[in-house]
Amino acid sequence: MRRRAGRVIALSDCGAAWSLDARRTGSRDAVPGWPAFLLRAQLTITYAFAAISKLNLVYVSSGVLAVYLRREYGPLVLSDTWFDWRGLMPLPVLSIVVEAFLAVAFWVLGSAPGAERL
Prior knowledge:
- By secondary structure, the protein is mainly alpha-helical.
- Helix 1 runs antiparallel to helix 3 and helix 3 packs antiparallel against helix 7.
């Protein structure tokens, strides 16, 4: 994912409006919007599939989270009351909600000012 994002940034004129070079040489009023579109689409696909892949009974029942938080696996030393499924249940559900929100929020919140789709 990092390589793809790096290629998009390298091929786009990402410093045309807000970079230090643009301050010295004069920034442009409008820049192409396709790089922002591609990055937004890539992040949307990543977060959407992460949320979809977590929609299973094992993850939602906090079984995965309990395994990773155990003393021999995780960096945290927590009491055994934390490993009850009723105490951990909101955390996996919250992670699914946040990832689904981010998948939608990239499109709802709009693009950067001055970016046009060319």
